[in-house]
Amino acid sequence: MTTYTKPLPSPDPDTKEFWAACQKHRLIIQRCLSCKSLRWPPRQGCPFCTSQEMQWEEVSGKGTVYSYIVFRRPFLSEFTRDIPYVVAIVELDESPKVRMLSNIVGCTPEAVHIGMRVKAVYEDVTDQVTLFKFAPAAEPATR
Amino acid sequence: MSFLNEKYCIVGVGETMYSRSSQRTTHSLAVEAVRRAAEDAGLEPREIDGLMCYHENDSVPPYFLAPELGMQLKFYMDTPGGGNAPEALVALAASAIAAGLANVVGIYRSLNGRSDVRLGGTGGSYVSSRRGGGEAQFWLPFGFSSAPATYALFARRHMHQFGTTSRQLGMVAVNARRNANLNPKAVMRGPLTLEDYYASRMVIEPFHVMDCCLETDGACALIVTSAERARSLKKPPVYITGAAARTCSPLVRWLWAQEDPTDWPGRLASQQAFQMAGATTRDIDVAMLYDCFTITVICELEDAGFCGKGEGGPFVEEGRIGLDGDLPVNPNGGLLCEAYANGTNNLAELVRQLRGDVDDGCQGKHTFDRTRCRQIRDAKVGLSMASLPQGYASALILRR
Q1: B151 belongs to the catalytic site
Q2: In whole angstroms, what is the distance from residue B185 CA to residue B360 CA?
Q3: What number of C-beta contacts closer than 8 Å exist between A and B?
Q4: B290 is catalytic
Q5: Which residues of chain A does B206 touch, with a Cβ-Cβ cutoff of 8 Å?
């Protein structure tokens, strides 16, 4: 296995559960126990109601492309060989408040469009780190 | 009426040459810009007793400059900030003067933004500092980096939601270039047609390189004082009548989490500034709209209320932002073509426009001949604003 040289996430006390779940190929999101909003990215308090009480909840990983861009030139040298690659904002089926940034993989950049159905896929990039990405999905929206 | 009204003003502006490689330190650039602004005002630099600056990549703090400018600072501030900073610092300078902390306050931005620390993340020192920690843990591992990437995501959504087109984005770039061609300070000059825009290199779709502002070296400075102090100075004062530097309400740190991410914070900032100034969009003779990317101009037209939501693209396409349009926008060529002095250069232009003394191709009196003159006819009131999709914005209304 070749050494992975791209930037890795540095989990912190607010995010370590999320990345640990990713390693198990599960996507978990924080839900506020007061206003019941799902929120992203993980943090101590709720940005919608300020409550500090929350629980982690597993989500389906299914969503819709909300916006996307195609890198035609590298801004990070480690990604030079990936050009062209797609970075998208994906809105999860569970809540419009959860819009996650990641890559769209498994199709050409030309195939990506706003409204495209996607599902989470996992890349075990090192022994310790798994990244979540999104790939085209056939199923229609669940909500 | 706010405490600001007619009591505080900008009395001097100045800058270094803008270039792609200054071969000078940010310290030396800042000293020159402050000296030039003082000279413009008819002040000795030592009469400046407050000094502020902002930085996002490189800079130099005020207390480093003070000795060689002969200043004994009673008040200084060096704050992180981007395009939203200059308007905020002008308001803060007025507040500091009102509070008796200082009498004459300089504000500058100094950077070697092309030859040294590039904001795009392609420069030496910036690269070594990038780690996937904090918020970056949810961007960097996916190869997401740089301002163009952030703004391109918002541009794509705006295009999807409102039918904004590449042609409309391109016309913002063409307007900037046309104006820059009348500005001897502008780094980017020469003809630019829509065809040239379409043919320009694709950087991050949907952005061509011509959608992105310049990266330049240089410094720019402004001087704020009281209306009373201004009476004995050289240039006619330009009064500060409304100001705001604020976040969305409520601010969801990642604007993507907002219900509608095309609702940018400039809407609230401009409302606040207009209200403070007792003015409306109809009063604005010239607008400096922070143009780090073409899309921001379109969104700021909407945010400030010059047109409705989603109508910014057609507003540009109809030619209304030209020098003789309903609302001349960025007559200096803005950040797209004059220089990336992070917005301070746009404020300097606004001050000169309102004084009627921009440096164009006219010898002496302004001719309004658009092959050489970029002075806006009878410009009395102007707006400068920056609305940033990261969730914060600023707005400043000035009048002569």
Answers
A1: no
A2: 9
A3: 119
A4: yes
A5: 69
**pLDDT for B54-81, tens place per residue?**
988 788 999 999 999 999 999 999 998 8
Does pLDDT of B2 surpass 90? no
Residues from chain A contacting residue B133 (CB–CB below 8 Å): 10, 12
* Contact residues, B window 117-156, toward A, CB-based 8 Å cutoff: 120-122, 127, 130-146, 148-149, 152-154, 156
Substitution target in B142, B146, B150, B151 with the highest count of A β-carbons within 10 Å is B142
List, for residues B365-374, the tens digit of each pLDDT value: 999 999 999 9
Interchain contact, B160 vs A6, CB within 8 Å: no
Residues of B in contact with A13 (CB under 8 A): none
b/e sequence B92-130, b meaning 16+ C-beta within 10 Å? bbbebbeeebbbbbbbbbbbbbbbbbbbbbbbeebeeee
Could you give the CA distance from residue A52 to residue A35 in angstroms, rounded to a whole number? 11
Cα atoms found within 13 Å of the Cα of residue B176, Cβ hemisphere only: 34
Partner-chain residue, chosen from A66, A72, A87, that has the shortest CB–CB distance to B157: A66
In the beta sheet, which residues pair with residue A128? none
- The two counts, helices (H) then strands (E), for chain B are 13, 11
Strands (DSSP E) along chain B, which ranges? 8-15, 50-55, 75-80, 104-112, 202-205, 207-208, 217-226, 238-247, 286-289, 381-388, 392-399
pLDDT digits (tens, 9 = 90+) for B275-327: 999 999 999 999 999 999 999 999 999 999 999 999 999 999 999 999 999 99
* CA B339/CA B328 separation, integer angstroms: 18
Chain A residue at shortest CA distance from B133: A10
Rounded to whole angstroms, the Cα distance separating B318 from B306 reads 13
| CB within 8 Å: B148 and A75 | yes
Q: Å from A113 to nearest chain B CA?
A: 10
Mean pLDDT of B216-222: 97
A78 at interface of B, judged by CB pairs closer than 8 A:
yes
Half-sphere exposure of B317 (CA within 13 A, CB side): 12
Q: Tell me the chain B residues in contact with residue A6 when contact means C-beta distances shorter than 8 Å.
A: 141, 143
Round to whole Å and give the CA distance between B238 and B355.
Answer: 7
DSSP string, B270-299: HHHHHHHHT--GGG-SEEEE--SBHHHHHH
- Over residues B117-133, the mean pLDDT reads 54
What is the per-residue pLDDT for B1?
Answer: 52
pLDDT digits (tens, 9 = 90+) for A63-97: 999 999 999 998 888 999 999 999 999 999 999 98
Residue written as tokens 């090192």? A126
Q: What is the pLDDT of residue B4?
A: 76
Do A8 and B132 make contact, defined as CB atoms within 8 angstroms?
yes
